[in-house]
Amino acid sequence: MTLALNPSNVLGEFYISFWIPTAVLTAALVIKLPTIIRLWRDPLLRAVGGLLLLACGVFVFCTPSTIAAVNRLTGVPNISAPWCYSLITAFCGSCLLLIITWRNGLSDRSAVTRRALRWVVSVYSGVIAALWGLFLLADVPVERLRDLDTYYATTPFMSEEILLYLVAHAVAVLITSKLIWNWVRTEGLDAWLRWGLKLLGAGYVLNLIFDASKLIAVTARWFGRNVDWLSTDLAPPVAALSAILIAVGFILPHAGQYLHDRWRVRRAHRELRPLYQLMRSASGEGVPFVLRATPELRLTRRETFIRDVLLPLARHLDTGLGRRSYDAALDLGHPPERARALAAAVNILDAIEARRRTPEPPEPAAGPDTTSLLQEIGAVSRALRHPDEIEAVRALATAPAESVPVHE
């Protein structure tokens, strides 16, 4: 005996709880919330917050347990249907508004942009009003928690309501997806923003699969066919996965840039450690006690300390040794940028030794220019991690003149 393969049973293995995208969307909202509160006057940030809040509402109220609770609380069978349809419609309208504003920029006040925004608000507000009007006219006495779309697909007024919300959703998703993918192809985008947009685009493509599944299942009912599994078993996990991708797409540009900035600051702080330790030994100061500080503040303190010690040390710098060290580093095969860092390291080490021999040298008529040195402390600190290279440059720079090859 052979068993027929039931798509519903197969898809059941890939069920995604609606609470998972709800949690991811809530995390996205929590991550964005401090910025939204701090910059509340920014309409774009408010729109992002509102969109994420609507998305959370969609998955909270479209969960079967919540649908049953709302129906029971109001005493109206299937009152959750127009409520959920309205949330979905408001969400996709908000997506359109956000992408139009985000893509064109808040400074864009062109007639085309204003007309597009007004069109979206008026059309989707009208759709929501029509959804409630159609529900009041429909006769839907039997509560359906999971298959309302297909169960009432041929019921007068309710069939029109179901078709209206699916078409409104599909149109918004199609336009939003096209705008996003056009934006992805724009030159000069930040890498984090580009990847965030790609995830948003993938999420909206999945939304098109959701709409197609629902529409096929509903249309099949009109012709007496039953492919309800497309609506009850395929569409929900597709919608959940879509929401996860959309939430991550909103999170990624913010979180990615934040983590990149933290990594850059910590790397700069770590790179300055050799020069910082050298300046501490040269100044004779111990490690100052400081309260807990942000990475940016610790980096600023380290940079300030290095420059504060380098400035008085500059009186002991030998400009002639600096030039010879630079030529020596070039002769040893180092590129110009690396050669400058090695020459500066040699010069600083020589200046520390010179100050120990002569703490107060006579003041020169015109002190050496330390602008370049103070700006390149990161490169100098990295050079100090390679004492063998510094010693090779110093040996060649201080060798007798007749033994030094001429650098071309």
In short:
This is DUF6545 domain-containing protein. By secondary structure, this protein is mainly alpha-helical.
Report on the structure:
The protein folds into two domains: 9-266, Rhopdopsin 7-helix transmembrane proteins, CATH 1.20.1070.10; 278-403, no CATH class. It contains 17 helices and no strands. It has helices spanning 7-12, 19-38, 43-61, 64-74, 80-104, 111-137, 148-151, 158-184, 191-222, 229-271, 273-283, 295-313, 319-331, 336-357, 371-375, 377-383, 387-397. Helix 3 (43-61) packs antiparallel against helix 5, helix 8 packs antiparallel against helix 9 and helix 14 crosses helix 17 (387-397). The longest helix has 43 residues, at 229-271. It starts with 6 loop residues before the first helix and ends in an 11-residue tail after the last helix. 34% of the residues are buried.
Short key terms for the protein model shown above:
about 400 residues, disordered N terminus, 17 helices, Rhopdopsin 7-helix transmembrane proteins, mainly alpha, about 75% helix
Strands, total number: 0
The name of the CATH superfamily of the largest domain reads Rhodopsin 7-helix transmembrane proteins
Mean pLDDT: 83
Q: Which fold name fills CATH's third level, the topology of the largest domain?
A: Rhopdopsin 7-helix transmembrane proteins
Element string (H = helix, E = strand): HHHHHHHHHHHHHHHHH
Protein name: DUF6545 domain-containing protein
InterPro entries: DUF6545, MAB_1171c-like
Pfam families: DUF6545
Domain DUF6545: 262-384
